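B., you asked whether I could sanity-check this one before it goes into the benchmark set. Here's the sequence:
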Amino acid sequence: MEKESDLETPPTSYRPNPSARHQSADIDIEKQSIDQGHNSQRQQSDEGDHEKDGQEEEQRDPNLVTWDGDDDPENPMNFKPSRKWRIAVMFGLMTFVVTFASSVFSSATMVTSMQFGVSSEVMTLGTSLFVLGFAFGPIVWGPFSELYGRKVPLFAGYFIFAIFQIPVAVATNLQTIFICRFFGGFFASAPLATVGGALADFFGPIDRGVAMVLFSASTFIGPVMGPILGGFITMSHLGWRWTAWITLIMAALFGVIGFFVIPETLAPVLLQRRAKKLKHQTKNWALHAEADEHEVNFKEIADKYLLKPFKMLIMEPILVLITLYMSLIYGIIYGFFEVFPISFQEERGYNLGVGSLPFLAVLVGVLFGSSIIVAITKTRTKRVFAEKGIVPEERLLPMIVGGALLPIGLFWFGWTSSKNITPWPEIIAAVPIGAGVMMIFLQGLNYIIDVYKINANSAIAANTFFRSWIGAGFPMFATPMFHNLGVNWAMSLLGFLCVALFPVPILYYIYGAKIRKLSRYTAD
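And here's what the prediction gave me:
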């Protein structure tokens, strides 16, 4: 038994959990009682094992604060399912707002270019710079979320992002708009950098896969809804400035609600808080959490989020090709904010609001792709997990389906874009595009997480940085490309690029397990 402290015995919540050593000792005792007739050498061996186990128990730190058993209600993994999904929904709504903000300004490109006397290509910087902020933000918010928990960086970044909508709404020059759009994107990336890890704090592998669908759907529904609502706002009596005011109102509403619904979920931080509370309750100043035993190593953090991601992006074939594929998808989505106005407003003559409605077909596709992923996750993936544990390559089946749907949609869209053809075939073509984008992006993200495990944060940091640059660049050259090539051939070019990358998930589905064994950053 552990030697009890002379001080008042604190609540059991800081006592070490029953371990495998206890179970081993109980089994040995039972074996001794059954095998009393065995030779004395075996009895002495068993007694030696007991003595060794007892010594190990005594070596355990009695002042280490841990969870009070596997069913500790304060452990986020033990939250009620209803509470878990309330938190997940709020994460989704906050993610929706920041991604909505990334694209809503695209609807004001023409109006603002005329107001400030610049070309529409220059005004696309209002969208591109916001997305570029997504590239740099996770470098800050990722480490913060591991050091100080999920909630502080999440809401700090989110509320500062909301504040940056004000100078955009009242701006009288381009510099203010562009600078504040960039920093708005930088701070808006806080949810994008922290929500994935937060979901893993309280969901198991199967439910986490479903929750990630909600999160990823929000990252695409937001950009799709931005031009639709922004178009009607811009052409109304409210004007383009209200695209920022509406964003601020939504951010404030969901931010305040989320602040009271979303708790801290990172276990090490919660245990540190418990240890601090117990210190004052018991006056035992030796109480501590495991995280207190490790000093903050900024060199290690810099390596994890600055150096290692780029090393992995060069040395890891899985990460390189999956990131390249996801970056193309990301770029296509943000390029569409310039493409749809060309096809439906310039060529077909629709006004700003009606010309944005075809984006709803992309939304339908995103929801369709999400439902397919959920269905596969709750059936096949769940069954395979029960039999074999996590098999990363199982994430690739929906990705392969999405990889087939996307180029079909792109070719279909391009060659039905003529103004002499009814718009419905072109609009319907956006459905497989939305489904393909969703299935490729989400399952690519899940695959990276499952493959790199403890190095997943570094892998995702590299992925986010690279695809955000691509997403920021696409709107800049999309307009001249579609004007010069025409919608049909420009969409076909994107379709051919998607066809070229289609074998990537097939390759890893077949050979992924062998390739993973050759990596220094993967662990089975």
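One thing to flag: Residues 298-524 form a domain with the Growth Hormone; Chain: A; fold (CATH 1.20.1250.20). Otherwise nothing jumped out at me.
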